Fold:
Amino acid sequence: MTIGFMEVHVLKAKGLNTTCFFGGMEDPYVLIQYEGQEHKSTVAKGRGRNHVWDEKFMFKVDNFGSKDKHKIILKIMDKDTFSADDFMGQTIIYVKDLLTQGVENGVSKLPPLKYRVVRADQSYRGEVDVAITFTPKVTYMTS
Structure:
């Protein structure tokens, strides 16, 4: 049963260090995952250490389930042409409270906030700006 829809607005990132052998991370993109659903941003090219996507992605929210659910995972990747894409780092955003508030109030929003990007070795690698809006599905009662 779908209870609503969540819009994830990936705005920009800064301070992402290079992973390329020749010194520049030129092709970053974001994989956004929520409850088995996944979207991929476009590749941001030629912006040095600051990258702008300004893209919105829609996810279906089915139920409230366990407390370990309801997290958005954003994986920052560097697109490579001749080898596998490089994992830059990720951030996890827990949204259960946002969903609860949206069901109670009709809509809930997290304004653009900065989230630290964590590398595989648990060190920080810059930040990503993300805004989230949850809108519950409207059900109409008929008499």
Remarks:
- Residues 66 and 90 are 22 Å apart (CA to CA).
- Residues 4-136 form a domain with the Immunoglobulin-like fold (CATH 2.60.40.150).
- The two ends are 22 Å apart (CA to CA).
- The chain has one helix and eight strands.
